[in-house]
Amino acid sequence: MLQTISAQATPQVLTEDLIEHVCAQRAYHWLRLDDRGRFEGAGFDEQAERALLELCDVTDRTMQAVVRRGPASPEWAEVLDLLDDWCAQLGYSVSRTDPRYPQLVRAYAAAERQAVELVRRRFAGDGVATPAQPAAPSPLLSTMTELYREHKSKATKRHQVMTAVSVWRRLVDFLGDVPLSSVTGQDLYRFYEARLNADAERWSMKYAHGLARRTVREVFELALTLDMMRGDNPDTLMKALPRISRAEEATRLKPRRPFGDEQLTALFASEWYRPEATTWTGKMRKDLGARYWAPLVCLFHGNRVGEVMQLMTSDIEVVDGLPVLHFRTDVDEDGASVLADIGVARSLKNADTHRTVPVHPELLRLGFLEFAQARSKADGPSALLFPSSMPSKDSKHPKLGRTYEQAFLRHVRDRMAFGSGFANHSFRHQLEDRIRDAQVMGQAWPIGLSLAYTGRKRLRDADKGQLAEPGSERLYGRGFSPKVQLPYIASLDFSRVKLPPPYAEWLKASGRAHDL
Length: 516
Hints:
21 helices
């Protein structure tokens, strides 16, 4: 029985290995059919022998003519149809515009003539053996897509998996769905070079040499581990990487800019902070708590947007008289049930992101603790702090806080026209800049305190030399207590930022005090 490969939706790119496999299968097919007629059935009588020998003669003349005369041969179109049908039987859709298609035609004709000659020798009494069925060529690049997705998903967040798989698919599109073992270091060099010089969606060198290359290397390592390819990882054969100028690279890097004091003041006076504004619809029109508090929590705590949008009311509590804020993933049984019902879970970037910090005094002045306690009283300690964070039950890819995140990005980027590089992460960067600016002689923060407060694993490049970076000692003990942190974070300078009025006053002025 023929060894088949799943049919491809797009034309199969022809390679030396694939051409050899297609033609070897054809020669084997001839002799296997002859075996069945000659030895597994009643054998060939004289009439059957004459018919088969006549077929051999016709086939031989046809293949000679095709090789000798090319498209001028009367049998040209018929042979190409037979060849394409044969490839389709093996599971390959080939294109006649493929640069190697003429090579395939010649090899196919040679295989046909070779098989005919062996059948003739059998009729002459020679004991010609049928060769072993040819082994399938190396699996194709596309066979790794789902295998890699499954492998990556076990320890990686969904959006990161999607990005990595997208890189691999770009490689498949560029090279064609060729066998894994056929890819060379030169192929990868050409791929990265093409992405750096693409007409649209050009990559930066940082992306091409970093995430993209790591992804491609990882997929080939997985293929080698699963014994799906032969030879070396082609990434190791690539001894150089394509480059672009520094000036061009700078235009492609997506900046992550900090909010300035004037921008923050403008934000807190913008439509985002007008409860009665008709701009907002759906969840963001109703969830005034998220509109008011999420930017402020990010301002004073420098947290990632996902960290604030997955907060539950139980994450804000008073411990030994000090209001504290927990950034964590664990939830009680009721909270787990609520999240499991719609297929979401709380997540943080890494272990260093889990932290307990004192609620910033300015948030307390604005009424954050009272807001959290009112939410807990209304919906219980397992309720999300911001109702708009809950995704719809019918969401295909549910994510806590997606509605807020997208709405805020559109507001600062489009309505306020802050430009590229400004989004939720801008709160984080502005706080880290304030921490760095606070490092003056005699008032420097303790080693590792800034990382503990903002949930970073290591210092930014901008902070190296300004803040003392911890060593292995950060791995031991319980870290900085909220009481130790409080004097330092309370001393950060926000004096040039005009904040909105306290939450209760803000709601009262809008006529929606019942939303407190």
